[in-house]
Structure formats: structure tokens, C-alpha cells
Design goal:
Elements lengths: L1 H26 L15 H4 L3 E5 L9 E9 L11 E4 L5 E13 L14 E11 L3 E8 L16 H6 L12 E11 L2 E5 L7 E5 L2
Antiparallel strand pairs: 1-2, 1-9, 2-4, 3-4, 4-5, 5-6, 6-7, 7-8, 8-9
């Protein structure tokens, strides 16, 4: 009889312990890890791969060009930003992001230029989708990145342009760090929203 009581007590205590353990598991707080990149399948962004050009109405030299391409984020050092997941040619899942090359001039950041020509630049940019059909790119330039003459594709860097007899723009030493916001109208047209007292610029897809 004593053995039965001992066994019964043991089972009773074991049952209580199991309930307490389950209770602890239920109330255990969940830990969420903030990932640097946002991963999701995004077929819409694939529609914007290509070249978008703004044609200046009076001065063709001051045309602007944004080339958008899709890249594996492993090729971008210290990547931070928006990415999504898709399969590569081998059928492997990879994380990709929108990246771009922007060909521009200093008139984008200077609304009071008088009596001198603008400086020109080409720079790699990371593209970040925003709400309300907007895209954001960041422009970061040192004075040595701004050159005297327009830079055209397929040249992809200021260094390459300098090797082709372009020269550093010496009118002013501009250290530029700006955001450019584009509104997506459709797959063939994006609009640069000006934060200066200028008209918005329509970029049309050329290929």
C-alpha cells in the first residue's frame, strides 16, 4: 500500500511539473531579429529594369540618365536596404536588389547658377522602393567626382571619364549628399520630384 502511495505521489508531482513547464513555454517571450534587408518576392520591380532618360528641352548636353539593373546583394559590400528573393539560372534562391548608374549634373542641386557651365558626374546608386509608388536613390559625391564635360554611357565612373580626357570641374568645390525621389507613373515613365523651385523631370524608358 505504501508503494502504491509513493507511486501515486510521484505521478502527481510529475504531472504538476509538466504543467508548469508547459506554462513557462507558453509565456516565454518571442525574440524577433531585425534583418537588414527586407526579403520578399517582388515581380513588379522587375518591370523597371532598363534605361530611363530625361531629355533637356533646350540643352541636350544636360540630359539625365538612370540605368536600373538587378544584382545579387552578395556583390554589394555591406549591403543595407530593400531586397527580394528569386531563383537564379541554376534554380537557386538568391537575394537581389535594384541598383543603378546615374548620369547627372550639378543643376540638380544648384538653382542659382549664372554665368558658368554646370559640372557633370556619373555615380553608382542603390535604389530603395518607398510607399506610394516612389523610388529613392542617394547621391554622394566628392568635388573630385564632378567633371567639366558631360559623361555618357557606357562610361561608368569618373575615373574612367578622366582617362578619356575629361577634367575635374573647378568652378566650385561641391560636396554633395542628396536624396532623389522618383515617382513611378508606369513601367515606361518615372518622374524626378524636384525639391528645388524647378519643374519635375520626366524620365522615359529608352530600352
Amino acid at each position: 500500500m505504501k508503494k502504491v502511495k509513493v507511486i501515486f505521489c510521484f505521478l502527481f508531482l510529475s504531472l504538476i511539473a509538466c504543467k508548469e513547464q508547459n506554462k513557462e513555454q507558453k509565456v516565454k517571450p518571442s525574440v524577433s531579429v531585425n534583418k537588414v534587408s527586407i526579403i520578399q518576392k517582388n515581380d513588379d520591380l522587375n518591370n523597371f529594369i532598363g534605361e530611363y532618360e530625361y531629355k533637356h528641352p533646350d540643352t541636350p548636353k544636360e540630359n539625365l540618365l538612370l540605368i536600373l539593373k538587378k544584382v545579387d546583394i552578395k556583390t554589394i559590400p555591406n549591403f543595407e536596404g530593400y531586397s527580394w528573393e528569386e531563383k537564379n539560372e541554376k534554380g537557386e534562391n538568391i537575394e537581389v536588389a535594384l541598383e543603378g548608374i546615374f548620369y547627372g549634373n550639378t543643376d540638380l542641386f544648384d538653382d542659382v547658377r549664372e554665368g558658368y557651365k554646370p559640372g557633370y558626374f556619373v555615380t553608382n546608386v542603390q535604389v530603395e522602393p518607398l510607399k506610394n509608388n516612389l523610388l529613392k536613390i542617394n547621391i554622394n559625391l566628392d568635388p573630385s567626382d564632378i567633371l567639366e564635360s558631360p559623361i555618357y554611357s557606357p562610361i561608368q565612373s569618373g575615373e574612367e571619364a578622366l582617362k578619356r580626357d575629361n577634367k575635374i570641374w573647378e568652378v566650385a568645390e561641391l560636396q554633395i549628399s542628396r536624396e532623389l525621389i522618383f515617382e513611378i507613373k508606369n513601367a515606361n515613365e518615372i518622374i524626378l520630384k524636384s525639391n528645388l523651385d524647378l519643374e519635375n523631370m520626366v524620365f522615359k524608358k529608352r530600352k
